[in-house]
Amino acid sequence: MGLGGLAALSLPGTGRAEAAYPNKPIRLIVPFATGGGSDFIGRFIAHRLTEPLGQQVIVDNKPGAGGTLGIEQMVRSPNDGYTLGLIASSYTVSPSLYKFKFDPVDDITPIVQLSQGPMVAVVTPSFPVQSIKELIDYAKKNPGQINFASAGQGSVTHMAAEYFADMAGIRMTHVPYKGTGPALTDTMAGQTQLFFSSTATTLPHIQSGKLRALGVTTDKRIPALPDVPTIAEAGVPGYACILWHGLIGPKDLPTPIVERINHEAIKALGLPDAIEKLQQDGVAPAGGTPAQFKTAIEREIPLWAKLVAKAGVKIS
């Protein structure tokens, strides 16, 4: 079925006429606490889907175990389209760190990638480096002496820095925090020297001079920081680490439902005010097909697994 004919879908049933999907509210499990970037994306897309679907999309925050507890609950839900899940880029790191009670690829139905965006490598202004090249040189002369902050052991902010260190051939010391807020605070205070964080979180502090931006983790410069080079062009060719979010459902979610949600999400993401809203949070709309989203998930899991093993990252 093409996307143009999705408005009057019905669910497969017992042979009698079925009500068009959806005919009741939809629950969106966001496996992170309220107030963070993932919660923002979850509430953003829930709001944007409510009108075109004709039913309330209700966010249900279920944090825990690096975002896996809520998704476990979603996986066990009926595959009728009334329970969906939001995943972030940390989803592809977690299988290497946590004991999953489900298969991260085979037990879900990818629907659509919602967003994509960079992290920014920032340092405290008192740290005597002005560029990625100078950072690498300093680390080589002072192995293990750079303390880098993260939002937690095994978080994407942790793994982005480990990936950078691995590709640059340097050794740094990891200082994990319980969330982005304290990691950012201690970096600004000089307790830690380096932090890989989202653009939205760091941008006000870069503009105020409380942090110095050395590079962005995307393969292209970003409009919000046009003078800040990519890490790849600044001294680590091939480096890229993208923050993303996406919608998934339980295994074997019916194709018509997947197509309907994918279609409405992409349409919503393309509206000018939606693009502007996402850009304010430092990300851009993504989109694409369910198959493309599945391929991206399948590609990232083994890449992170290799790095986790090499860096010896463990969750205590």
Structure description:
The chain is 37% helix and 19% strand. The chain has 316 residues and is α/β, with parallel strands linked by helices. It has a 6-stranded mixed beta sheet, sandwiched between helices. Helix 1 crosses helix 8 (255-269) and helix 4 (156-168) packs across helix 10 (290-311).
Compact summary:
The chain is α/β, with parallel strands linked by helices. The protein has ten helices and eleven strands. Helices cover 37% and strands 19% of the residues.
Share of helix among residues? 25-40%
Tally of structural domains: 2
Mean pLDDT over the residues:
90
Query: What is the quaternary state of this protein?
Result: single chain
Distance between the termini: 48 Å
Fraction in beta strands: 15-25%
State the total count of DSSP E strands.
Answer: 11
- CATH architecture verdict of the largest domain: 3-Layer(aba) Sandwich
Helix tally equals: 10
Task: Specify the CATH class of the largest domain.
Answer: Alpha Beta
- Largest beta-sheet details: 6 strands, mixed
